[in-house]
Predict the 3D structure of the following.
Amino acid sequence: MQSKKRHTNLTEYEAEQLSAIQEWKTEEPSVISKSLGTVFTPVSWLTQKLIPEKAIRAAIYAAMKTADKLSDRGDIKKAGNVSQIQELLNKELQVLDKLAGNVHHWAIGLATTSGIATGFGGALTLAADIPATVTLALRTIHKIGLCYGYESKTDEDKLFILAVLAIPSANSIGDKMIALNTLRAVRTNPERSLKPPPDGDAELIPDKPLTKKDTDIGIDHLAKAIGLNLTKRKILQLIPAVGAIVGGSVNGWYLKDVGWSARRAYQEKWLGDKYAGNNLL
């Protein structure tokens, strides 16, 4: 088991990042406006038909089951000059942020290239593009976690990754708050349920043991949110002559949001572990 050193004073850089984490939590979800969605309602309906929730759900399940194999640790260990991933827990946050930034930029570039390629195919390739994008998003979250010293070994680790993905996939500030509270619950008490409360309140149902059924419900809820979120982003991809441009920019945009979600979430986790007991978070 890893040892945790208790610290009392944030460095200047850590304080800056803690402030950035708080700002990130209050930002509106980065999706196309309601007005644009209204104008393109027929296209939106068609796009949703081409992006079945079942395909997204299957991509999530497949990626979650193989989360430990989604990323190569070798390049992270080499870049961080460590022999084991957990050694990164003892590095300075600024060093870890640089590692995560490199992974983040790589993911944006790969997503953009993929989006341009599938954008040329319009509706024919859109259905295949979404599961691939979701898989890349989960891989990116997992690899960014490695940059901060966290490996995906347990079910709780995988649930943390799932909660991180829920944040950029939110379609309203209310949905984002539920996702953030889920992330906090998994980070601080992984035995709490991922199931959204029936009344739509932002708080999770407390003190309920996590079951496979609850996890399945959480994934089903996330699959619906991802489908709607990416539909809003990709709504222009079906228009001739601009599909490739939109496909590339939207995929890159989504991975940019996913990357920042992962970076902020793992920064918070890292700071919480370093300053355990100081009630900073």
Remarks:
- Residues 53-274 form one domain.
- The chain has eleven helices and no strands.
- The radius of gyration is 19 Å.
- The chain has one domain: 53-274.
